[in-house]
Amino acid sequence: MISTRRPTARLPRQRMLPAMLALVLAGAAAPVSQLAAAPAPLAAPAPVAVPPAESGVRVHRASLKELGALFPLQLRGVDGTSGVAFSVRNDEVVIGAKLKLNYSYSPALLTNLSHIKVLVNEQVAATIPVTTQQAGENLQREITIPPRLITEFNRLNLQLIGHYTMECEDPLHSSLWANIGNDSVLELTVAPVAQTNDLALLPQPFFDRRDVRPLELPIVFSAAPNAGTLQAAGTMSSWFGALAGFRGAKFPSLIGELPARGNAVVMVAGRAQAPAGLALPEISGPTVAVVSHPGDRNGKLLLVMGRDDAELAVAAKALAIGSSALSGPLARITEVTELKPRKPYDAPNWLASDRPVKFGELAEAQALNVSGYSPDLIRVNFFLPPDLFGWRQKGIPVDLRYRYTPRPNADKSTLNINVNQQFLRSLPLRAVNHEEQGTLDRWFTKVMPAGETVPEREKLHIPLFKLPAQSQLQMHYYYDVVKQGACKDVPLDNVRGSVEADSTIDISGFPHFIAMPDLAAFGNAGFPFTRMADLSESAVVMPDRPGVQELGTYLGLMGLMGRVTGFPALGVTVAQAQQVDRLGDKDLLVISSGGGNQPLLKQWASAIPAALQGDAKSFQLADLAQRMLRWWGFEDESGTRAHRSQVAFSSSSTDAFIAGFESPLRSGRSVVLVASNQPAGLAQVMDALLDADAVTKVQGSTTVIRGKQVDSLVAEKNYHVGQLGPLLYAQWYLSRNPLLLILLGVSASVLVAIIMYLSLRARARARLKQQKKG
């Protein structure tokens, strides 16, 4: 149960025209509802003067690539359209917008008939003429977009209206093209909109799903945090990390002070003194509240409070799993109960391991439908457990059901299936059968009528090696346009295609078994910690006397775990080196920032393939010279790069590394060490793990990070986690140890020979005895 105190009044959020904003920015006292009721002017509104910086006005810039256009936009044909989606935060309103466009177009376009339209939400914002003098050049143009066209969720489209002749033309002629660079920038000038202090708005304004930028949310501790406070803070950062998803999230930490401006989360346990300038409400139990930032009229603070660590944990848990039920500026939590414990591999973001998963669970219905002769890809994103064992299996089975407009005649139209931009399969699109049915066909049609709604169906397999933990299945309808001759090439825009929501992908037949250490599994999927979605079998070992950099790294790593699983880290344990002996049943995430603040580095030095102590550094390196010996079974894994040499040196640079190894406390458990010779180096690790390109280089058992350079030094895999059936394990083990297989074969042959020899000797003796008796 949750007791709440509701606000006396709550202002609804309104989107206002720029002319109305002038009153707000000038400090008008009229409420928003009254301003919204004023009639809109018939003429175009006058430009709004940009208020001073202290008013909270900001400028957001994002390239089309950051908005989702991975490649330049290609506009083809007489009416080619492409674009991106963008959105505006709930607590902001746009008062100015510009599009800084990089583009080029075909020299064949006729100036008086062709142009490029810029559309926002299907309304024309600007028209760009195509002149003969600039044709084929790389051009730049700044376009002003009227703010009145922009709402919360928006679509920016570029449309080419192209013609190359005054006579009959081919609407898909190769000379009809324009190219829009994905480095073009959309610039939005926004002003803040006043928000009420209401828990019902959560997770806004601390996280807004409309905002595609990476989340940066400071977490403030009223005093130096202990293990219990850090566990509650980890719950909060993993919750926000799950909400941020693909955007990524960072959580700078502060102790005893608030950020100068913006939103923040404040953790208060016991009778700790409030950060300067903040007045705390009375704490009589687990309490959560939203208050205004005392130093920023546009900022909000989320207070998570308790009289002790246990109550603080309850308050954080209530926010992470029950925020949608809260309301009012302040809520005192009376009870939070988990109805069902978590199970391995049941993370909300991961494909279910016990049943086929429908595409409708992975993508919205509208994303599974396309139209037109040049449709966009149908994309289905999914997350796999990284320890699926697919030895001697075809791959992951997919039961694909799809519909499309039948082709008028047999042609080369296909449905192309890719996974992570790698070609997988091509399915032909059939034509309408115009032939008259025979007597037998008509009889079958009467007995078993052809269902018009029955989709096409194809069963296929995706090779497991093509699938990293985070994957995307891509389906593209390609239509072959048959040339009919001059003045006849006018294709009807009536083609449609879709993938059925009840198509399935199934990983239930795969066991979980993986060679470790594997930093790729950690970097991409947080494995092995995310095996339990709530991290209940994981522990974080903090350095002695952690500072704000170490705390921020811990919070950032918890955010990464939440991003992978889609669930807050409610069960993570936080400890220090002195308490590690009681953590033998957990996988350990160890943080170190140099200066001797992590005693485990000395205790486990023989297992760690790198060492950083101030300016003194040493790294173990791999060597492939012994590959043949490993193939013949003298080492555990074929193809791995075991450490063969070591380099030690001294330098003043800031270096960091990630290392994985088997836990010295218990076999089968794992340790991942995140270490640097200076606290600032830990930020480099977080930057690498949040960078989509850099994280692909985090591999093997040791990865060194120096600024933006990421290198994998060792890929030694010396233990396995997971479980196989007895027969499958025996087959797999013998396949990895050919010498043992040969010895077993020879031994079996010798044993069979001995048995046959003894059997034949026994028969010979029996025959001799019978002969003597005779």
UniProtKB/TrEMBL annotation:
* Top-rank taxon: Bacteria
Q: What is its main location?
A: membrane
Q: Which GO terms describe its cellular component?
A: plasma membrane
The record describes its membrane topology as: Single-pass membrane protein
- Pfam families, per database record: BcsB (PF03170)
Compartment(s) where it occurs, according to its Swiss-Prot or TrEMBL record:
Cell inner membrane
Identify the stretch annotated as signal peptide in this record: 1-36
Please indicate if the UniProt record lists Mitochondrion as a keyword: no
> From its record, what is one biological process in GO terms?
UDP-alpha-D-glucose metabolic process
Listed transmembrane segments = 739-760
Q: Which InterPro entries match?
A: Cell_synth_B, Cell_synthase_bac
Q: Which family does it belong to?
A: Belongs to the AcsB/BcsB family.
The free-text function statement in the UniProt record for this protein reads: Binds the cellulose synthase activator, bis-(3'-5') cyclic diguanylic acid (c-di-GMP).
Please report the name of this protein according to its UniProt entry.
Cyclic di-GMP-binding protein
Q: Which organism is it from?
A: Acidovorax kalamii
